[in-house]
TrEMBL record:
Residues 143-246 form the Restriction endonuclease type IV Mrr domain. The keyword Coiled coil does not apply. The chain crosses the membrane at residues 12-42. This is Restriction endonuclease. One of its GO terms (molecular function) is DNA binding. It comes from Methylobacterium variabile. One of its GO terms (biological process) is DNA restriction-modification system.
Length: 255
């Protein structure tokens, strides 16, 4: 990456040119050069503010997705602590893949390293700027009730959904159909991120039920191992909030 010009670099030639011109053209040329110098100084000093506004605008454009991902990647452990590890990884991913390329393309690449914490702070603010959905009922505490809760969310989204029997479900807690597409779900009401065992189970369920799509649904996020396996097996990893907007489009590989 080429070295960004410093303020001194930008001012050097206008000052030199103004000084030389004043020898022939008098004080007017020196005054004009002074105005140019002042303009460059003002522009440079305002660069930090423009940088912040640009980051804020990029994050604001994605605020609803960021808010949803924050909810999906956070959970409360049995001791009442809010665990944000998954969300912090997601926040960094967004900053690196979405914010940084735009900043570099717009000439702010030299500010990224020194203002990295500021970038993350602005992304965090955007994720908190959208109010969480108003849940009219408490999240079910036991697994079977959570399965019924997920099936009900799918029904609201236009699916015909039913829970399976506890025995003989072959890894599917919920089977749903819509527009000729069959979906199988593994539903995990956990106090910690879901591992790749749930992904393995729903892959088997997809084959057993001859389903087009398969997903693991949880309130507590997913481990890196689960995400890697889901990406390799074309399994959706979802927070239960996402069920309300889940369409019947086939596919949907997760990163």
């Amino acid at each position: 990456m080429p070295r960004a010009s410093s303020l001194a670099d930008r001012l050097f030639w206008p000052i030199v040119a103004g000084g030389v011109a004043s020898l022939w053209l008098g004080p007017g040329a020196l005054a004009a050069a002074g105005l140019v110098v002042l303009g460059l100084v003002a522009h440079r000093l305002g660069r930090g503010g423009r940088f912040r506004r640009r980051v804020r605008a990029i994050a604001h454009r994605h605020r609803e997705t960021l808010a949803l991902r924050r909810r999906q990647e956070s959970y409360v452990d049995p001791y009442g602590n809010e665990i944000l590890d998954g969300w912090l990884r997601e926040r960094t991913y967004f900053a690196e893949r979405t914010v940084l390329p735009r900043l570099e393309a717009e000439g702010y690449g030299d500010l990224i390293e020194s203002r990295w914490d500021e970038i993350l702070s602005l992304v965090e603010a955007a994720s908190l700027s959208v109010a969480a959905p108003d849940e009219t009922e408490a999240l079910p505490e036991d697994g079977l009730a959570y399965e019924r809760y997920c099936a009900a969310l799918l029904e609201r989204a236009g699916w015909e959904a039913r829970t399976t029997r506890a025995a003989g479900d072959q890894g599917a807690d919920v089977v749903a159909e819509r527009d000729g597409v069959r979906l199988v779900l593994q539903c995990k009401r956990y106090a910690k991120p879901v591992g790749n065992g749930a992904v393995q189970e729903v892959v088997a369920a997809r084959s057993y039920w001859s389903a087009d799509r398969a997903a693991v649904v949880s309130n507590a996020g997913f481990t890196p191992a689960a995400r890697k396996l889901a990406a390799a097996t074309d399994v959706l990893l979802l927070h239960h909030d996402a069920l309300l907007e889940l369409g019947a489009r086939r596919g949907g590989r997760q990163r």
